[in-house]
Amino acid sequence: MNWEFILGRSLSSAIGSDAAVFALAAIGLNLHFGYTGLLNFGQVAFMALGAYGLSVTVATLGLSLWWGIPIGLALSVTLALLLGLPTLRLRADYLAIVTIAASEIVRFVARSVSMRGVTGGSFGLSGFADEFYAVNPIPGGSYGFGVVQFSARALWVIAVAWGLVAIISLMVYVLMHSPWGRVLRSIREDEDAARSLGKNVYSYKMQSLVLGGLFGTIGGFMYAISQQSVQPDTYSTPVTFYCYAIIILGGTARVLGPVLGSMIFWGLLSFTDTALRQAVGAGYIPTAIMDGTQVGQSRFVLLGLGLMLLMIFRPQGILGDRREIALDAH
Amino acid sequence: MPTDTWVDGVTPEPGVAKPDPILVVDGVTRRFGGLKAVDVEHVEFQRGAITALIGPNGAGKTTFFNLLTGFDRPDAGTWTFDGRRMAGMAAHKVARIGMVRTFQLTKALSRLTVMENMKLGATKQKGESFARALLPPLWRKQERDIEERALDLLARFKLDNKRDDFAGTLSGGQRKLLEMARALMVQPDIVMLDEPMAGVNPALTQSLLGHVKDLRTQGMSVLFVEHDMDVVRDISDWVVVMAEGKIISEGTPDHIGQDRKVIDAYLGASHDAPTTAEEERQQLAAAEAALDAESDEREQLQQ
């Protein structure tokens, strides 16, 4: 077993663009679920709108990539309003039902045959992010140390994505230490109490839904750019639940919870993947138990096991506050 | 004991006019299926007075509260607060114009600190708008002023040493105190307390009563729902009695105590007061046991 390779791959994943993309989406979800108490089960829909907003603008409409950004953001706000208008006055579980349905609707529309001319149907779209790579200031070559190596292109995506994570985390930090953030947290605790103190609960919930959705959409932009392609089935329901796993892992209602959570999530996934592959390859794990083709699924089993252990021994997540969880039990 | 003299000029009968009403209710009804939970023809509440709203269980007191404060919508009816028409107004707007309520089941915001609970109560906060929240210099000064006001109130309610604790760690009585203090952060004209003394030990009841009387001294009007007749007699200037959704009697606490209709309403529907000496002893023992348990708990908390 080549531990240097295993650890190097894990580290590459932990600081790679996927980790940054999921950190962005999870920051949005943390705003919804962690701070406002909104049960959004369709965060992936906001990511999909970002990815498709960008790719359709370039590949189908023939416009500049930079037009894709406002278009994607506008689509995201529209979806948040559509979801929120009928459900935010109702109990929390209605939003959960509507969002999970909406995220599937977005995916099915994107992959439908009749949309093939626009979204590329189930094949998706590709090769739309050249403008992004054209402005890459990093000279060509390979960067990194040991087995952790990134091409200039990959490094450019990583730098922009983590830069966005930093800016948005700072924004969330400022917001959550402001009276605005205090109102959101009070809504999470008890809507009626917030209402009785003169807070327009509906409006704040809507603001939270829109803003968190926008962060997911920005994550979707970066996901599409990093892969230079979009495929509808990338944006299926499990993505939302990865985001939940990430914020629970890192600590809900913590500014850096989703960031750390995403790094650990992707790092661990890569670690179990390469470690299992090597163990199978070296014969440490007999093929009667597992062969190379089963590694892909098994790593999620192990990750699930890890999450269960975390819930038992550290239910507040890595950055969470144990006292807050204790209060939850009341 | 009430010191106001306005009560002398008011006939104790349901729906009677008050010399200076702050809240006037007309024809408010609310049905739940076939049940008419609230059916109030006309009632007025005097400004600057403590009015108790009493009645047997299921009389519609809390529903009436919910209607007046915008937490529920009536099927019919209008009411004015300080001359302003209120029917159909959203709950948060009701609070903003100066009518603030508390809840029967205390709503402390558990995972906010005591200080955050208090600061939330302040209205017209610049930092509560999204855009301005992003620029702290715009709201820092106001935040400091709010904090100062909150500290004053916390000191008055003897919660200042708990300011940085999560509200969820407070005892039941302390939560009641916090909820009342938080309501005062809104700077209301009328405070609506839904069973402020429920589940509070007798020692704390005295302190809570003191605070309610303070509100009147500071010029606020108070309307509160209560079951304990001793409390009602102690602090209220005027008592309004509800039964089966209707106002059946009004008057001073002394008058209400002798009103046949009130006694019938209580005895006819449900009967909380002890009827025999044995029952009274049992109730007393239960109350003392509860009191001991609470004081033990407080000692443990202090340790």
Key features of this structure:
heterodimer; A: 330 residues; mainly alpha; two-stranded antiparallel ribbon; B: 303 residues; alpha/beta; Rossmann fold; four-stranded antiparallel beta sheet; 40% helix; 20% strand
Explain what the structure shows:
The complex is a heterodimer of chains A (330) and B (303). By secondary structure, chain A is mainly alpha-helical. Chain A has a single domain (3-328), classed as ABC transporter involved in vitamin B12 uptake, BtuC. Chain A is built from 15 helices and four strands. In chain A, the strands form two sheets. In chain A, strands 1-4 form a two-stranded antiparallel sheet. A two-stranded antiparallel sheet of chain A has the order 2-3. In chain A, strand 2 (142-145) and strand 3 form a beta hairpin. In chain A, helix 12 crosses helix 13 (257-281). The radius of gyration of chain A is 20 Å and the shape is globular. Chain B is an alpha/beta fold. Chain B has three domains: 1-107 and 189-272, Rossmann fold, CATH 3.40.50; 109-169, no CATH class; 276-303. Chain B is built from eleven helices and ten strands. Chain B has helices at residues 61-68, 91-96, 114-121, 130-133, 140-156, 172-185, 202-217, 229-235, 253-258, 260-269, 277-302; strands at 21-32, 35-46, 50-54, 76-81, 84-85, 99-101, 190-194, 221-225, 238-243, 246-251. In chain B, the strands form two sheets. A six-stranded mixed β-sheet of chain B has the order 6-7-8-3-9-10, with helices on both faces. In chain B, strands 2-1-4-5 form a four-stranded antiparallel β-sheet, covered by helices on one side. In chain B, helix 3 runs parallel beside helix 6 (172-185) and helix 5 crosses helix 6. The two termini of chain B are 38 Å apart.
